Amino acid sequence: MTNTKIATVAALVYAGLLASCSSGLAPVSKDAVVPTVVTEQTEFDTDDPAIWIHPTDPTQSLIIGTDKEVGGGLYLYDLDGKIVRKVTGLERPNNVDIAYGLDIRGKKVDIAITTERKAHKIRVYSLPDLTPIDDGGIPVFEGERGDGEQDAMGISIYTKKDSTGSNAIYAIVGRKAGHSGSYLWQYRITASADGIVKGTVVRKFGAYSGKKEIEAIAVDNELGYVYYSDETAGVRKYYADPDKNDNKELAFFAQNDVTSDHEGIAIYKTGDTTGYILLSNQQNNSFVIYPREGSNGDANSYTKLADIPVSAIECDGAEATSLNLGGKFPKGMLIAMSNGKVFHYYDWNLIQERIDKGEGK
């Protein structure tokens, strides 16, 4: 990174620090990891990112993020944080995730799915062109009548091979309010003969403490688990595959490690079964790190490895990849939403150094 870019990043981080202090939020630690890249600003309020990996050249991969407000939308960024494409005019898009290879009339299409909170829908867009392919959206939480019970917020996607060898894609959706045992609804995502993407409810699950809400959701696709933040309570773990017919909670951890809100969850993979679960410690402006290989039924196996201060302010959504994206990100990256209408990209090497030190453990 050139001296000019370093100065620009430092100035943006410092501006965010001043804004957080003046608004009464917890200040960023003087020892916080500084982002390698700060994105261009959205119009309203960023919330959640996802990473689309280019099929042939990872250095051309893109970041997709939500701008969370009525009239907001989805923004596509390059690895330098520049906005390359956007779609706006949505009814408060909250979280977003990506799936690869949805079969649409015999063609494999990569997709982004975002929750459209005030429309009570999820929206589906093809990638990387960001074209809507859902005929105006897929209604969710139909039949729910309580306050906030149709307000879709969190989303994560699970993919497996079906009986024909095609990708079976499932969206796991959270909301502003719901009932313990059925807070999350899972939808099978398919395309009809006319190419319109549809969603069918296949499962309702998920314990809830009743303390705040459930928004942040992450799927470990290779191991087949879904994790979600029961805000101010902890992180809950379930099987992601609806065909297991097993809605038993597998683990409930991080109950005593977070200042206030348990928020964004990201998974960084170092091997087939190893790696890290990263949890945004929102009001502490840090990420708590847990082992990916924690055991089912044993919350103690999810022992905190580190609590790393970052420059992102009050991070909601997060995402990570271990793939070599070239240039500034040879070991992948952590992406964190930050106040100030931006996302922060962190070179993974900076995060790994702090984990190796056991910082904040």
Describe the structure in brief.
The protein is mainly beta and 361 residues long.
Structural write-up:
- This protein has a single domain, classed as Neuraminidase (6 Propeller).
- Strands 6, 7, 8, 9 and 10 form a five-stranded antiparallel β-sheet that branches. Strands 1-25-24-23 form a four-stranded antiparallel β-sheet.
- It has 361 residues and is mainly beta.
- The protein is globular, with a radius of gyration of 19 Å.
- A hairpin with a 4-residue loop joins strand 20 and strand 21.
- The protein has helices at residues 3-22, 348-357; strands spanning 37-38, 46-52, 62-67, 70-77, 83-91, 93-104, 107-116, 121-127, 131-132, 138-139, 152-161, 167-175, 184-191, 197-205, 214-220, 225-230, 234-239, 251-253, 262-269, 275-281, 286-291, 306-309, 318-321, 333-338, 342-347.
- The two termini are 30 Å apart.
- The chain contains two helices and 25 strands.
Number of helices: 2
Query: Whole-number average pLDDT?
Result: 92
Mind telling me which CATH architecture this is?
6 Propeller
Report the radius of gyration as a whole number of Å.
19 Å
Q: What fraction strand?
A: over 45%
Distance between the termini: 30 Å
Name the structural class: mainly beta
The total number of structural domains is 1
Morphology call? globular
**CATH superfamily descriptor:** TolB, C-terminal domain
Q: State the share of residues found in helices, binned by percent.
A: under 10%
Biggest β-sheet description:
5 strands, antiparallel
- Total strand segments: 25
The CATH topology comes to Neuraminidase
Query: What is the CATH class designation?
Result: Mainly Beta
The topology string of helices and strands comes to HEEEEEEEEEEEEEEEEEEEEEEEEEH
State the low-pLDDT regions, or none: 1-11, 13-24
